[in-house]
Amino acid sequence: MWPWGHLAVGYLLCSLWMRSRYRQRPAAGVAIALAFGTQFPDLIDKPLAWHLGVLPSGRTGAHSLLVAIPLIICLVVLLDRVEQRPLARWFGIGYLAHVFSDGLYPVLYGEYAYLGYLLWPVTSLPELEESAGIIAHFAAAELTPRILGEFGLFTLAAVLWVADGMPGLRLLGQLIRRSVAFVNDNAVSR
Fold this sequence. Notes:
Blueprint: H1 3-22, H2 28-51, H3 65-81, H4 85-101, H5 104-108, H6 134-139, H7 145-163, H8 169-188
Helix pairs in contact: 1-2, 1-4, 1-7, 2-4, 3-4
């Protein structure tokens, strides 16, 4: 699944759960933690496989439940100490939504061997054609029904996000401005 598909799946799960369970929209911190979680496995595995050759595939290390579950549990315990457990929980939900949505197409096509990443390295993976990098991966993409379907899912999630008041946008802008100011202040002081 492509990054926008993972983001859409995660946001739809979050917003629909928050609306049905608590009759409220996702808060800003929740939306950002969730969004980061939906991208996290690829942010770790793709560079380690495609650029550094440390992992055999862009869908192994952080995509494995043997890594994901302990990491999420540690994060929940750590953030519980500073009373931020909901952020860890929604990061974890986004993370697991990514991991399991990567298995959607193999399940639909009956290619169950491609689900080996879920318990990697205990289980093996079939030989995969790996990308030469993220830019090459995007450049080689063709407009297929799968990609169009993911864009449709993303559009649906974006409409829901706007209806929810665009949670996280203002907070993300503040965080970026603070980061830029910090970098600029440190560059001037050198």
